[in-house]
Amino acid sequence: MNNYDKYRAIDFVNDQAFRAWVFNKALNCKNDLSEWMEQNPNLNHEVQIAKLYLQNIQDDLPEVSEEYVEDKINNFWKTVENKNSQADEEQPIVTLSRYKIVAIAASIILVIGVVCFFFREKEQPITGLLSELFVETTLSSRVEKINKSTVQEEVILPDGSKITLEPNSSIVYPKVFDSDIREVNLIGEAFFDVVRNPDKPFIVHFNELVVKVLGTSFTIRANKDDNKMQVLVKTGKVSVFEKDDWQKIKNTTNPTIRGVIITANQKVEYLKETSKFEKTIIESPEIIDALTQEEDFVFEETPLIEVFQKLEKAYGIKIVVDEHQVANCTITASLSEEPLLEKLNLICKIIHAKYEMIEGQVVMNVKSCSK
């Protein structure tokens, strides 16, 4: 295995073994790299930047056109020419022929390799220029915010969306959302309050998952050392995908894969070891209906089905019950100022019922209404 101890992000990007590991093409060295990263946590930030860059361009590599490659090379050489002019106006400017440009393979990584070869032939230092190329293609048009403090930090995105970034977390986003989607990359934990825009879905990439929303508020917990990742929805609706599934459908108008859909007061957990989703209700559901007040939960001989309907509307959580079982049931109780789960517990005590939470819903089992 290579000696990565002095590597920076640009070095990882140019390392063939590292790229193969990121793209899951070198399973034989996966354990070695994982073990090395555990032993060198001080380089985790460089690793994450390199991994993020490679993952961002991965899906475009097979489709990159010669014109795209040519544009990237021309932009790079413009930078070189500007630097040459500033350093020595009489120094001849190095250019590439059209023949060489067309011959370059359609890959940003291979472009970097070609530049490396060219500069080696000219015996000129390349580290600084390659670093600038890396920054130009990934970070010059993007912003990275890292919360190194011990308190939350608020980040305002170009569209007005707000992110509350937890300590030891980071977010990368473009300076301008000028494409058909609004994409950001998260490491760690953050709360998102997304401005609604049906024409530009909001996409969050984190670890092995992708979240897609139109406009909503939700929390993502994806700390790198945790085996479990969570998405918790406060308002609205989100779809959660495994990264591989997202790549299959991201450009599809009517996708057959729709991800795991969760709504207000629901959450989904993803276990890395099993690659399984588990959908449930958050620990402390909140009232999401603006017209509902706690005083509305005082009941007197109220039909039980109406009580369930009011709870369902207030919290946005589906309550599944057999209407025939509760057709003649009424309830007299004050459930105000009680959390949702305690409200359900009190109802169950009164009518001798039980409930389960299945797939983010409350399923009631009412045997009788005898008191």
Structural overview:
This protein is an alpha+beta fold and 371 residues long. Helix content is 33%, strand content 28%. The chain contains eleven helices and 18 strands. Strand 8 (217-222) and strand 9 form a beta hairpin.
Short description:
With 371 residues, the chain is of the alpha+beta class.
Q: What labels describe this entry?
A:
single chain; 371 residues; alpha+beta; Jelly Rolls; 4 domains; 13-stranded mixed sheet; 3-stranded mixed sheet; 11 helices
Please specify the SSE layout and strand pairing:
Blueprint: H1 9-14, H2 16-22, H3 30-39, H4 44-58, H5 66-87, H6 98-103, H7 108-122, H8 127-138, E1 142-147, E2 153-156, E3 162-165, E4 169-174, E5 182-193, E6 202-206, E7 209-213, E8 217-222, E9 228-235, E10 237-242, H9 243-249, E11 260-263, E12 266-271, E13 276-281, E14 298-303, H10 304-315, E15 319-320, E16 330-334, H11 340-351, E17 353-358, E18 361-366
Parallel strand pairs: 5-6, 15-18
Antiparallel strand pairs: 1-4, 2-3, 3-5, 4-5, 5-8, 6-7, 7-10, 8-9, 9-12, 10-11, 12-13, 14-16, 17-18
